[in-house]
Amino acid sequence: MAEQVRAIRTRRAILTAAAKVFEERGYRAATIAEILATAGVTKGALYFHFQSKEDLAQGVLAEQDQRLLVPERQSKVQEMVDIVMLHAYRLQTDPLVRAGVRLSMDQQPGLDRSGPFLRWGEVGHTLLTQAQSQGELLPHVVPAETSDVVVGAFAGIQSMSQAINDYQDLTRRVAALLRHLLPSIVVPSVLASLDLTESRGSAVFAEAAAHLPDSEAVALT
């Protein structure tokens, strides 16, 4: 168990260092040597976890994904809201997630940035399809199309918040975004039951973190 915890912490340290260097230098200018110096690990330790600079960048990008699993909700629209609000909260509180999002928004030559957008689109598509089957959506909604709109709108809102005040108002902006989007997607009876408050992300984070095994919780510290 102790060895597993050390490996998790080492991988986290390498990713955090890579995120810092990528953010400061850009993907193309960043070097493995700089990342090693920032992380304070050996070359062998780095290559045990990551095979190349591109592999490191993809690791940083993947931090946007759901390591924290939102508990299943009876309302699939609420589950989607919870995922969106949790991501907004993590952007405010987790530097590694923040760096991954910034990397995905930058036009870095030689780096495939499509992964996070495609994965978030798939998550939204799945939940909206389930919501549709439960009668939660308005008749005109096409889940794949609506998912792309939500992902794209979130990307724009987070970019705006980052530029204006480094994500300090992100949860407020995302809550406003959902209040504007969802009436055109969700039936009124479901809409009235949704929790769209700014504090929803922090509450979901605490709920999800409480269910993590100790070995996985290490990655959040």
Tell me what the structure shows.
- It is built from twelve helices and no strands.
- With 221 residues, it is an all-alpha fold.
Any descriptors?
221 residues, mainly alpha, Arc Repressor Mutant, subunit A, Tetracycline Repressor, domain 2, 68% helix
| Proportion of residues in helical segments | 55-70%
Structural shape: elongated
- Count up the domains: 2
Beta-strand content bin? under 5%
| Measured distance between first and last alpha carbons | 17 Å
Spatial extent as radius of gyration: 18 Å
CATH class of the largest domain: Mainly Alpha
Tally of separate helices: 12
Write the H/E string, N to C.
HHHHHHHHHHHH
Overall pLDDT level? 88
* CATH fold topology of the largest domain: Tetracycline Repressor, domain 2
- List how many beta strands DSSP finds: 0
CATH homologous superfamily title of the largest domain: Tetracycline Repressor, domain 2
The structure class reads: mainly alpha
Low-confidence parts, pLDDT < 50 over ≥5 residues? Answer: none
- How many strands, which pairing sense, and closed or not: the largest β-sheet? none
CATH architecture of the largest domain: Orthogonal Bundle
Compact overview of the structure:
With 221 residues, the protein is mainly α.
Secondary structure layout plus pairing:
Blueprint: H1 2-25, H2 32-39, H3 43-49, H4 53-62, H5 76-93, H6 95-105, H7 114-133, H8 143-165, H9 170-181, H10 188-191, H11 200-209, H12 214-217
Helix pairs in contact: 1-2, 1-4, 1-6, 4-6, 5-6, 5-7, 5-9, 5-11, 7-8, 8-9
